[in-house]
Specification:
Aminopeptidase, 5-stranded mixed sheet, 4-stranded antiparallel sheet
């Protein structure tokens, strides 16, 4: 697997319909929740404007995410369209890499905007939290009708309507650059060279103290030879 994540441009427009199909499949895999349906024309517009990232393994589409702005660009959303090909899920943290890429792109294009997300997905919540997002009530998110219209394709939309757009099964998450510094991406893993520690064995002092030097002397007696040991 050799996946590269690109900031989208007009060269990638040919993937628009395939991206829509992947978004639909991902929504179905989540039980029809958490991902708004988008047309190929809408996706192509995001790609051409450079407001999306696309993950490719060679020429194969394996992931995608795009940026949306609301309330006169005061709010930015980018989690709703984050999708990963089924064959590449839970492998090498691809979703996290895509999320980091679209998050950094959002901050670069809209440095003063608040970045937000609503999701039922535990994995998305975890990724956002690691980037510095905080859980908030819907009242702290955009009141732009265009954003909430995007929820119409969700099976829980009626719950959102009944609660006057103030709560749903989704959790609201918000990143505000004015109050929350972004968590820096982890540096690449570097192998640590560990030098072997050689311990020199110290002489046993007790042994040295008890150590004695011996010498021998021979004493002669009539008919006997006696070997005597003398300690110093």
């Amino acid at each position: 697997m050799n996946v590269e994540i690109h900031i989208a441009n007009s060269n990638f427009i040919g993937y628009a319909q395939e991206i829509c199909d992947l978004i639909y499949e991902s929504a179905q895999a989540r039980g029809g929740t958490g991902i708004a349906k988008r047309s190929a024309e809408y996706v192509a517009e995001k790609i051409e404007a450079g407001k999306a990232v696309i993950a490719l393994d060679g020429d194969k589409l394996v992931g995608f995410s795009y940026i949306e702005t609301f309330s006169h660009k005061r709010f930015v959303a980018n989690s709703g369209g984050l999708v990963v090909h089924p064959d590449y899920r839970n492998q090498g943290g691809l979703a996290k890499r895509i999320k980091r890429k679209i998050f950094d792109l959002s901050r670069r294009l809209y440095p003063n905007a608040k970045i937000f997300s609503i999701t039922t997905g535990l994995a998305v919540m975890k990724m956002n939290t690691e980037l510095g997002f905080k859980p908030v009530t819907f009242s702290e998110l955009t009141d732009d009708e265009e954003f909430w219209k995007g929820c119409q394709g969700c099976r829980n939309y009626d719950i959102l309507q009944r609660n006057n757009y103030k709560m749903c099964l989704c959790t609201g998450l918000l990143y505000d650059s004015k109050t929350q510094p972004a968590v820096q991406a982890s540096p690449p893993f570097a192998k640590k060279v560990v030098k072997p520690v050689i311990k020199r064995r110290k002489a046993n002092k007790m042994f040295k103290k008890n150590e004695t030097k011996s010498s021998f002397s021979i004493q002669r007696r009539p008919g006997h030879v006696v070997l005597c040991t003398m300690a110093h």
